[in-house]
Structures
1.
Amino acid sequence: MNFELSDEARMLQDGLRRYLADAYARPLREPSDTVWAGLAEMGVIGALFPEEAGGFGGTGWDIALVFEELGRVGSPEPLLDTGVLSGGLVAAAGGDVEAVIAGGTRLAFAHGEPGGRYDPTRVDTRVEDGRLTGRKAVVAHATSADELLVSAREGEALTLWRVDPDAVEMHDYPMTGGGFAADIVLNDTPGERLGEGDATEAIVQAQARATLALCAEALGLMERIRALTTDYLKTRKQFGRPIGTFQVLQHRMADLLIEIEQARSAVVNLAGNVDGPDRDRHVAATKNLIGEVARLVAEEAIQMHGGIGMTDEYELSHLVRRLTMVDHRFGDTLYHLERFIRLAVA
Amino acid sequence: MNFELSDEARMLQDGLRRYLADAYARPLREPSDTVWAGLAEMGVIGALFPEEAGGFGGTGWDIALVFEELGRVGSPEPLLDTGVLSGGLVAAAGGDVEAVIAGGTRLAFAHGEPGGRYDPTRVDTRVEDGRLTGRKAVVAHATSADELLVSAREGEALTLWRVDPDAVEMHDYPMTGGGFAADIVLNDTPGERLGEGDATEAIVQAQARATLALCAEALGLMERIRALTTDYLKTRKQFGRPIGTFQVLQHRMADLLIEIEQARSAVVNLAGNVDGPDRDRHVAATKNLIGEVARLVAEEAIQMHGGIGMTDEYELSHLVRRLTMVDHRFGDTLYHLERFIRLAVA
Amino acid sequence: MNLDYTDDQKAFRQEVREFLAAELPARLSDKVRAGQALSKADHEEWHAILNARGWLAGNWPKEFGGTGWDAVERHIFEEETTAAHAPRIVPFGLHMLGPVLQKFGSKAQQDHWLPRILSGEDWWCQGYSEPGAGSDLASLKCEAVRDEDHYVVNGQKTWTTLGQHANMIFCLVRTSKEGKPQEGISFLLIDMESPGVEVRPITLLDGGVEVNEVWFSDVRVPAENLVGDENKGWTYAKYLLTHERTNIAGVGFANAGLQSLKRIARAERDGDRALIENPHFAARIARVEIDLMAMATTNLRVVSAAAAGQAPGPESSMLKLKGTVIRQEINALTKAAVGPWAIPFQSEALEGANEPSAGPDYAMPATRTYLNNRKLSIYGGSNEVQRSIIAKTMLEL
Amino acid sequence: MNLDYTDDQKAFRQEVREFLAAELPARLSDKVRAGQALSKADHEEWHAILNARGWLAGNWPKEFGGTGWDAVERHIFEEETTAAHAPRIVPFGLHMLGPVLQKFGSKAQQDHWLPRILSGEDWWCQGYSEPGAGSDLASLKCEAVRDEDHYVVNGQKTWTTLGQHANMIFCLVRTSKEGKPQEGISFLLIDMESPGVEVRPITLLDGGVEVNEVWFSDVRVPAENLVGDENKGWTYAKYLLTHERTNIAGVGFANAGLQSLKRIARAERDGDRALIENPHFAARIARVEIDLMAMATTNLRVVSAAAAGQAPGPESSMLKLKGTVIRQEINALTKAAVGPWAIPFQSEALEGANEPSAGPDYAMPATRTYLNNRKLSIYGGSNEVQRSIIAKTMLEL
């Protein structure tokens, strides 16, 4: 049992933190090609892949470390979608992710469908003779992707296909947390098969790792939001004294701190179990807890800031918007509560 | 729309409040024959029955008024069981409740059975040729009752029977809120039929009114607990000043006050609807809300009192024990949450 | 005690319903139902319709052109208009300035300004908050110095809602620095078209623009625009805050929001069932509905007492607090209900522009409303301030 | 990073399990599982068994007869004994006084008192709290005046847990009224059999007697029973409070309580299903289990840091707070789970006497445990005090 970072991990963390502090010295709320190239160059994308795929990491601990740091600066880069979700699927199927690791190729996973909500198996897109027909909804970072990975049914089997983004109809719009998503229409669109057999378990596994990434990002966001709020409580004066001297706000901050510590432990639990036999129970527990704590932290941070916390211009707004969106990918608190009950309580 | 008490109601309230202030000047934690006689004499039992039954009230408003006052002093008298629940059933069946109103006869309703939890229709006690066989559990105030009312199945029908307490086997024990309850064994025990036809609706209606009584009592308990706690916050000093000057406790008291106000409105809602077509929805809503608020008030009151709040000797202990038991009769918060969903949400 | 409305009240409710059925333009109620922002012209159109019926000033006495309704009638009107998705009445002239002028203004001020509020000739906004003086209004700094028959105003106001539409602003300004902070504040009416007034929009968390900063640089204001006495503005402001707190519970908004939430939860699929059949989601809806049922009755109790002539006391703090908690919970549940459709951030789509998400229409405003309504617990006296008021007045702590 | 125990740690866990299987009397574990009160003899029996194995003083260094375990080993021992429903170790001598004597006591005091703790010859209790000095310990009044080679003690202590069994009490007493309130406090060991000591039981909310008032009237205490320096008792008390806070999270108790709750929820019928199949009840269990999974890891992080030599800091306040919230929620759910069987108030039944309720055995302690464990958030520094500590030390507010 060891909760210390290894020397390599510590180096990655230090380097990444320094790089991000610099890159986000002026806050960036939209993805940036420069930052993407910078992340690739310092090996951050490679840290998400195991050696056999050409990376130098790929464990749950690596994912947690990288995404907590990205969360701290509110980075909107498509690293989760490209590196963990789509890249993870390609690597698991034995595909080549060299270009992904090098930062040359960005991927997006077109999986969820209108009305499918959070069910990872609800796919109605059909494939016949290597051509796909169907609709995909809210595909994150679809417009900036060099290649789409699309899930579709071939008979009963859930299968994965590489599709050229230029070959589909895209309706794009901004996302609440930055970047663009798109609704996608496939109409007899050609695709190239990725992997063999049924991909359900591969998708569930990739989503479990992406959930870890998202939860770790949420942890970073919460840490940064907490720091901003603490600073604000020390500087802002009302009724003649810093509002941080009011006992009510002190106790509410103490409660936030405790809950963020819970969130950290939940991320640790998932990081240590994401590739193990107890994966599903930990995915459910961690995503549920993170969703609960994220709502509390976002709402309390705005409330304690008062008016300034409601403005777009202030740094908090972007962080809070990203944090509030965590509950809307890969299943929300209630979805995972029900899963946890099935797996652990009932 | 009118939230003012009528002159008669105001008189009853004033008189009852004065009487109880006197009767409970030294707190009584167990039922008292003197208090019972006093209540009967001033017409409090009669206020629970309509004129056609020999009373002079019997509306939801009357029940709410009486039980809020009883709650304020933590009275453990069996008025709910005798007056509202059993007496209500007898009166509804056209039986004679004169002796009940006069205070001469105390009744208990032997209805719930081991394993039946809160389901009012789960009755396995059988009746054949006017003789009852079965088990009843946690029959409140059974040992002090002059007559038992027992529910039993005759064929499919749910029926009611008057039974002599001396004719049954009783295992009695104290209740957490004061008074005694008993588990009862009926073994070919003779009974006298009360009313005709299936009694299910009559039982549900009597329980609805008893639920109102219990919720109003909880409201009175909470008012008294709040007053005790406020007083304590003003007198008790720590770190050199009254603990009521600490902002954290002020805000928590404000939240309690708001929730108690919610509880009052919930009781009003049920009082106005307990005999109407929207009864069941209001029973579910009010009992659920009271259960939630009662837990909050009990736990916060103990916490704000600190050590003294943990002692049996101090007045709070009895009030808190009674309040905690409200959730264990006629369905708890979760039972009524599910009922409310069925009736109002789904 | 009884919970029923009188026959007269029922008849009045029927009259309001018929009026709304006949006169509320579907174009406006559709926008409100869909959570779309209303334009200045939309607001003006609805105000004019109400004014034509004599129902614009529900809280003014008849002598000033108001309806003379009691609190229960106002409540019924509020319930029915909210349920019909009518635009809310822009409150600054009608609910805020109007009562202050009626109570503290001169006859000349009443005669001049009140009819212009009803006719729509003036659009008022409120100049109370300043950076550094939000919940702590008494510490405000914006200054007015008397210069013969004018005041010269310098300083800044913020959180000025819909200031971009307004031609007039009523302000709290500092006219003296002596005594306690609450003393030395005056209540001044300022023409926004005066030289030296600048309005800068503030973009909010939800991407919308509804509040503004207003800057004053040597703005000359005729002394006749002072309301009441110099340095007594704090008294008028407190009076106004009390008036602002009628309907502070927002029961109508909460009910409309709850109905909309249930519609969405019935429409959304969750696996093989409707979302509303998910017991955990249903439990969250049930809890907030149960709370709302109780709060609606608390509100009626206060309304009923007000109609009987009792002044609203600290109960309004309780209603404000519980009301915001309930509305914010409904907003959070609505955001949860739309699932992944909460992710699109479509300001243009809400205005009816290009490339909306393929998601259902009801999903579009969910995230923005959730974010925007975080303000409910901040403005008009934050919930923290309300708790302190309750502790002081009701608990005497 | 990794979450696995080392092979040595796994072997140790196995060793503890085997010991418990062989040595823990079923009579004792049955009582603990059923929530029954343990007698003095029960406690002494279990202490003697542990002492025979050399495992009684898990937090003492070997030189004083302790095990010398590190924090992880202590954690494993705690997990296994709790899971096996072993009696908890009575902490006053072993976990509280022991470390203070080892750190601040004289050699003579160590040689005399420590072996008697291990052998069970002395049963210690704690004299800290006073009426009016609970969370605010520094304001204590119980007074010790030096009279040649004795102190003369007058005053009152309260909340003295299991004082009815004790022959010795360690007290904080006021030896000076000068300076700050924390100054002028001394740490004194008092023989309970001295003339002038009176113990009065306090019945608690749950009907049980586990705490006492202790009164001192001109009690003469040999000066050699002063630990450390006069007027420095506050330092020793703070040290002790830190030590008391190891295992403050109560993960073992919470786990045992959760397992018991699930057993009850599987056994209880709720309509046509087991209670655990009621989705709303299951949700409440799930939420507390999820919280507990996270807290257990927070606890391990602190344990692991402690094993690596880091002193426990304000994290112990976080663990105390979250730990009590979780345990109290489990207690509340257990009370809810037993339904109407929560109503019987059976102090005698718990001791095995006559006329128990016909309800299932598991129902009997539910209400009493719920009521009794309200103390968790009050004693050992109330949760309010913990929040203030966290705000001060970790947020620097």
Note: The interface with chain D takes residues 1-6, 9, 61, 230, 233-234, 244-245, 247, 249-251, 253-255, 257-258, 261-266, 268-269, 271-273, 285, 288-289, 337-338, 340-341, 344-346 of chain A (CB under 8 Å).
2.
Amino acid sequence: MGAPPSITDQLRADQLGPLADANQFHGPLVLPAANRGWLADALRGMLQIRAVEERIGEMVSTGAVRCPCHLAIGQEAVAVGVALQIRKGDRIFGAHRSHSHYLALGGDMHRLFAEVLGRRTGASRGMGGSMHLLDLEHGLLGTVPIVGATIPVAVGAGLAARFDGAGGVAVSFFGDGATEEGSFHEAMNLAAVLKAPVLFVCENNLFSSHLHIALRQPADSISRYAEAHRIPWLRVDGNDIVAIVEAARSLVEPMRDGGGPGFLEAVTYRWRGHVGPREDEDVGVQRKEDLASWKRRDPIGRLADALVAAGDLVSADVTRIRHEVRAEVAAASARAERDPYPAAESLLATVYGRPGRSHS
Amino acid sequence: MGAPPSITDQLRADQLGPLADANQFHGPLVLPAANRGWLADALRGMLQIRAVEERIGEMVSTGAVRCPCHLAIGQEAVAVGVALQIRKGDRIFGAHRSHSHYLALGGDMHRLFAEVLGRRTGASRGMGGSMHLLDLEHGLLGTVPIVGATIPVAVGAGLAARFDGAGGVAVSFFGDGATEEGSFHEAMNLAAVLKAPVLFVCENNLFSSHLHIALRQPADSISRYAEAHRIPWLRVDGNDIVAIVEAARSLVEPMRDGGGPGFLEAVTYRWRGHVGPREDEDVGVQRKEDLASWKRRDPIGRLADALVAAGDLVSADVTRIRHEVRAEVAAASARAERDPYPAAESLLATVYGRPGRSHS
Amino acid sequence: MTSYGVAIREAFAYLLERYPNVFAIGQGLWSPWYVGNSMTDLDKQFGAARVIDTPVSELACTGAALGAALSGYRPIVVHPRVDFMLLAVDPIVNQAAKWSAMFGGQVSAPLTVRAIINRGGEQGAQHSQALHSWFAHVPGLRVVMPATPSDARDLLVASVLSPDPVLYIDDRWLYGLEEDLEPVRELALEREGPRLVRSGGDLTLVGASYSTLLCRDAASQLASRGVECDVIDLRVLNPLDTTIVADSVRRTGRLLVVDGDWSCCGLGGEIIASAAEAIDAGGWRSRPARLTLPNAPAPTSAPLERTYYLTVEDVVERALVMTGHFEVHE
Amino acid sequence: MTSYGVAIREAFAYLLERYPNVFAIGQGLWSPWYVGNSMTDLDKQFGAARVIDTPVSELACTGAALGAALSGYRPIVVHPRVDFMLLAVDPIVNQAAKWSAMFGGQVSAPLTVRAIINRGGEQGAQHSQALHSWFAHVPGLRVVMPATPSDARDLLVASVLSPDPVLYIDDRWLYGLEEDLEPVRELALEREGPRLVRSGGDLTLVGASYSTLLCRDAASQLASRGVECDVIDLRVLNPLDTTIVADSVRRTGRLLVVDGDWSCCGLGGEIIASAAEAIDAGGWRSRPARLTLPNAPAPTSAPLERTYYLTVEDVVERALVMTGHFEVHE
Ligand SMILES: Cc1ncc(C[n+]2csc(CCOP(=O)(O)OP(=O)(O)O)c2C)c(N)n1
Ligand SMILES: Cc1ncc(C[n+]2csc(CCOP(=O)(O)OP(=O)(O)O)c2C)c(N)n1
Ligand SMILES: [Mg+2]
Ligand SMILES: [Mg+2]
């Protein structure tokens, strides 16, 4: 088990090496020496995502939730870590696996439950489901399931931020599979040319649906594309929130001072199948055994262990947080299940905007 | 004026350095010590392309030719050099600036003139014009003007060659602008994953229409993308046919033995504007003064000088070849101008194939 | 009895077995049910070299299929959803559909693009489009939409054997439909077209793919209420031959088109327009009508999905109104 | 007198001057005539930061425009040819058109996509498509096609000020058309629609953009031969309001639609179908008809281009046949 590599100590851009190894990075995180009060909140944030998604998984199993749900269980650190660098006025975009982004940004959990249940009180008023989430209050301008689609959209939001001149940035969350779409490359080049302050966050979980990256690309690290598009990049263990926060900060800070795009590759793993709650298969394909090892690289457990080892928390605190979060989840999901469905009129009433309506 | 860099002596993948410098590489080519009988033919091939395109330019000026013509004058070495590595059964695709590819592969010049004139006797039976050329006999399976479009098509032809198992390869000619299309990146990745024997030939003439590459990309060398897609690449002075032939050979030979794709970046310059015969502008934008310097980097003049200096030819030979080529051109173009237009029925008769018609 | 999904698989197996130049490429082909049961284990049966799963690159995979088609192969590129295929409009519409004409008919582009309509199940706006009307609009591209297991199989075989680029669209909602199948027939696609699948003198119902099923089921119910329908299954949408539609309407004087695509500039309007152009005013007993999707993207929430998609009841009700059996209450 | 091309430029200048959140992005914007005279020197007047020339990346530029639109800006993304825009179908059709509905109407996507129909001149199949019928098919996307300089200007302003995604399509063949212009009016796009631009009782001619010009010119010629036409300029193709077409046909009893797009599932058929749905059989004095492009990709060779594209003579001739002034010799 190696020590986590420092973010400046990069491997070659095209090779993940130990970062892709399920048997590395199992120990407690290495915590910063000072100023780490935020970590307990980060732990709570990750626990919240996990608990919400576990509950959604159950609701899919029971049939209460019918829309396709792609769970980010195991990947919580990326969303929470990046969100810690986000300020009011920043603009964020996600994809099909974005419950974590929605929650990490501060999205209300009841509205998420309501949305996956197709209820009028949902984040997208029951018109989007799991794969289409909006939270204007927290800067989440949209998540959509056409792979790669929001990457250029985020570049435009970055351009807008440059026009605004207020130090805002745009963030695009996407997976390793999305980098096979031409839209990704066009967007990277455009961001570089326009010097748009966009943080590209690739959650490289090594899989697109049932296919390992080795079957889809000639190398396993996505950062090589950032290198080619001349975008500053950093690559981290995506299950290490300390490393993520540090990398995101060092990429985002120069952007706020007028810099162009940055690229963060977070290497991680999803614990559930591509879609739905099952652990054992991706669209019918038996998953490999390394899930057990990846579970030992748990972004939550490793942080909790480190905080307890450092004396910042005692085990009972962790247990308490877990309980609190579960109670919140139970209440929010129960409430959402009683919420009404959208009115039939929403179908036609949402297609075009009301003239003069302000949209931002 | 530096000596041409050896093809193995690569700069960093993202910087063209002296290769993009109009004031470099003005002297005679460095010829191979032996086995260079082919160079006189290559000279003739390049002279032929230039003479044909000069004639087409005149015909555009007089209004005899009406379709948009993108001339490759100044870039002849790339087409002729790569064509020397092509065998019967290989499959080649071009783009909007492909008269040079058509001729270098052995295409009949009368049929080219007829095509740009829209005559029934043309390469595409008068249904395609300058931007849509076909020559099944010589393996040119199509050139089309949607930028980037034929790059994935060539990958499929490469896959077909792999299926055939006969050592054939596919070749895709495209420009630096085309690498801004997502199709290029998708195709590169797909070729790498499928191990398709495709030679990607990027004629980097530093411009896409009126925009210099510095306004369109964060670095001027395209080879950095090949590096990212893990495709073996070589980069040469695109006005040095000796370097092109050598680089193309070293990329193509392993492909014929079952290897995957290769990437050749040939740095060159077009002497005429983006479209049409004028030298002074690209779609209305005044061109820079470095054309005069680029003319001193003439792929034809430098070869001719070297052959004369080496005693392989005397000046009179060069003059004779020029005259012969001009006479051919005059005869072929005059004949084409007398050819008939396509029959009105071609419009509907060419849309669908005849059942059972064999196409290859 | 063979289901529609299995019938598609039979077509693949038939082609892969008999034609060494056929191969399949697309996302999900190494999964047992990414495309339902329509391609299960073909990779195991015929090898992963001929049944190729791919990166998430719709454009390049389609372009590559075109390149292979120009090189003597008969590729079938599979798009698990029509929605994703919109990233590959260039190779389909700008390239493949025009390849023969652009080069004076010297060469054709015999690739088959198979796209799947996969909607409902609260999947939402980007996972539910049909858009066959778009592709039927494009000269040079044959568009096929089978409504039955036997067509699902034989028209796929015909598509692949056609010298032209073909867009073959199947619908997941039909995968369970069963039929006893005859042995495969190698049909010449250019001779296939709309077919009268039920006869009745009161009303002409026209559908394609799943909407044909709606029409057939509606026709059965209508028969029990004394309304006899001609039902026409369009089968081939481009080039579209509307002769039998016009012949039918000349008999019935009434036309109702059912289409699971949007209305404006859609297939429903095309059928009505063609009939209106062909039939004199005196030949109509009522105004023609169409049932299509509402003018909205697909919703997710189940109750809205139920109002969004057409049902047999919608067809029956409209048919009764058109034939004067039913009053409209507005 | 202001030409159509210059009128477009005036709309850009008007918007860029008054609305700091407007910007333009697309290929060729730093060239004086990449898009004809419709944007000349805007980059110099308003700065290259707001009039942005781009890499050859249709998809990303369109997606980026969407992102800016979601961030408080009013971008106009320019596609110098419809054909190239086919690489950007995903951001237009899957994203922008659905953005409002997918998120329950909480947000809209006020971007304007400007696409230019640029055909003829032996440019061939990939440099000549219109395809407005495609986009008019898509709920959520407003589609605008101006036929006059004043509409070219005012409908562009209206498009950009609309809260919705708008596809604004102009035609290079109209750039020379001149008109005296009133001062700019800021129209509310959702209240604009088809317009009766000439009245006559014998025949309804319907066009959009360049085909409106064909209809108007044909109507003048027809008047001199005693045939009086209503001419309807569609202007806004989606959402399409066909009320005035139906009203007109109720008066004339005859309908001829002229459209420079293909026929199958096209705008021509849509207009006929809408009229057929709205008008009782007794209201028709002749069968409706449409003139469209032949079912083929655009050729290059000039003589074939002449047969391919519609002319005023084609319209006049068909109108004379429909009104009984002329026999068809077949
Ligand atoms: C354009 C498009 N193509 C294909 C799909 C089907 N699809 C949905 S998610 C997915 C996998 C994407 O993988 P990745 O980007 O790595 O994200 P992850 O699922 O790993 O989070 C695919 C192929 C899609 N939704 N959109
Ligand atoms: C998809 C598409 N977008 C834009 C164009 C317009 N266009 C034609 S040629 C060209 C320049 C391409 O530059 P490059 O690939 O470097 O080739 P070069 O002209 O330099 O040979 C452009 C932008 C097009 N034909 N197709
Ligand atoms: Mg992934
Ligand atoms: Mg170039």
Note: The longest strand of chain C covers residues 74-79.
